[in-house]
């Protein structure tokens, strides 16, 4: 559907810890109606070898539980954060995708709007095309979260609250539509 490039972080002891220096975040529709996924793939340079335990991809189901928020990242670029809760352990992790400075602002905004529309469809089980722009904006605004970490780090956070189900890390470039949480790993 749509993708942007940037860096991926997780929150570790109150600070953003880099997982992927370079990555691509993609929103895609699954085979199941009204179900979308956020897929974050690590960029691997030609000839770069990864350890067997290094994660190359995270897959998150998109729903209201993500608490998607607009944020300013550690490199002071725009980005979006979201929460993922592991189905097995119940542990919640806050993730951040900081958009590459080369990405035009309108593309970042379009990515966030698309994410909001996907979460709208997941919640209401109908197309966001049938909703007015005001209804989508109201839905996104209502999802605002006060738990955004950037507000304490940089004082800049406008929650778009989007939702996500557990992430599934993957060592291959293909992804699965099933979700299970993962622990974070370094890049």
Characterize the structure shown.
- It is a single chain.
- The protein is α+β, with helices and mostly antiparallel strands and 187 residues long.
- It has a nine-stranded antiparallel β-sheet.
- It has helices spanning 105-124, 133-142, 150-153; strands spanning 2-12, 15-29, 36-42, 57-62, 69-72, 78-85, 92-99, 157-159, 164-170.
- The longest helix has 20 residues, at 105-124.
- The chain has three helices and nine strands, in the order βββββββαααββ.
- Strand 6 and strand 7 (92-99) form a beta hairpin.
Biggest β-sheet: count, sense, barrel?
A: 9 strands, antiparallel
SSE ordering: EEEEEEEHHHEE
- How much helicity do the residues have? 10-25%
Question: Mean pLDDT across all residues, rounded?
Answer: 79
The shape is: globular
Would you report the number of β strands?
9
Radius of gyration: 15 Å
SS class: alpha+beta
Show unreliable segments. 145-166, 171-187
Oligomer: single chain
Strand percent estimate: 35-45%
Sequence-ordered SSE layout with sheet pairings:
Blueprint: E1 2-12, E2 15-29, E3 36-42, E4 57-62, E5 69-72, E6 78-85, E7 92-99, H1 105-124, H2 133-142, H3 150-153, E8 157-159, E9 164-170
Antiparallel strand pairs: 1-2, 1-7, 2-3, 3-4, 4-9, 5-6, 5-8, 6-7
Give a short overview.
18% of the residues lie in helices and 37% in strands. The protein is built from three helices and nine strands, in the order βββββββαααββ.
Offer a few descriptive terms:
globular; 187 residues; alpha+beta; 3 helices; 9 strands; 18% helix; single chain
């Amino acid at each position: 559907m749509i993708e942007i490039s940037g860096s991926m972080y997780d929150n570790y002891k109150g600070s953003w810890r880099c997982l992927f220096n370079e990555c691509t975040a993609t929103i895609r529709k699954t085979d199941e109606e009204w179900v979308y996924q956020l897929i974050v793939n690590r960029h691997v340079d030609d000839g770069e070898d990864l350890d067997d335990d290094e994660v190359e991809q995270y897959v998150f189901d998109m729903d209201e539980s993500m608490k998607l928020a607009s944020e300013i990242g550690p490199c002071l670029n725009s980005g979006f954060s979201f929460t993922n809760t592991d189905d097995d352990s119940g542990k919640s992790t806050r993730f951040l995708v900081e958009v590459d400075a080369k990405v035009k602002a309108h593309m970042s905004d379009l990515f966030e709007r698309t994410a909001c529309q996907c979460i709208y469809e997941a919640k209401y089980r109908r197309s966001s095309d049938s909703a007015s722009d005001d209804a989508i904006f109201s839905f996104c605004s209502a999802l605002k979260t006060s738990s955004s970490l950037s507000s304490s780090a940089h004082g800049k956070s406008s929650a778009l609250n989007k939702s996500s189900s557990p992430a599934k890390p993957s060592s291959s470039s293909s992804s699965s539509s099933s979700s299970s949480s993962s622990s974070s790993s370094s890049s």
